[in-house]
Amino acid sequence: MGVKLAEKAEIGIGAYAGDICPECGKVHVPNAKTIAAFEEGEAILRGEIPSAVFIDPRQYQAREELKAALKKAL
After folding, report:
1. What's the CA gap between 62 and 40, in Å, rounded?
2. Alpha-carbon span 25 to 28, nearest angstrom
3. What is the rounded CA–CA span in Å between residue 31 and residue 45?
C-alpha cells in the first residue's frame, strides 16, 4: 500500500478521533497527554499562549544587559 494522507476515523475524541495508518490500516488514537500537547500547540499558533522566548546574546554588549533582557522576557 502506498503512502497516502491519513483518513479520520469515526472513533475517539473530537478532532483527534484517530488516524488510519496508510501502511497497516489500523486506527491509532492518541492518548490524553498527546491530545493535550496538540491543543497547547494550537493555542500557541492562535496566539493565546506565548511561544518560547528567543534572545540573541550577540546583540548585547555586556553580560548585565543580557541578564536584564532575560529577566524582562521571563
Report:
1. 36
2. 9
3. 21
Residue 15: the pLDDT is 63
Residue 42: phi and psi, rounded to 5, are -65, -35
Residues of the chain with pLDDT under 70: 1-18
Count other Cβ atoms within 10 Å, centred on residue 6: 13
User: What are the backbone angles phi and psi of residue 37, rounded to the nearest 5°?
Assistant: -65, -40
Tell me the C-alpha distance between 74 and 61, whole Å: 20
What is the value of pTM for the model shown? 0.45
Rounded CA separation 5/60 (Å): 46
Q: How far apart are CA 2 and CA 44, in angstroms?
A: 33
Measuring CA to CA, which residue among 34, 52, 55 is closest to residue 44? Answer: 52
What pLDDT, on a 0 to 100 scale, did the predictor assign at position 28?
Answer: 79
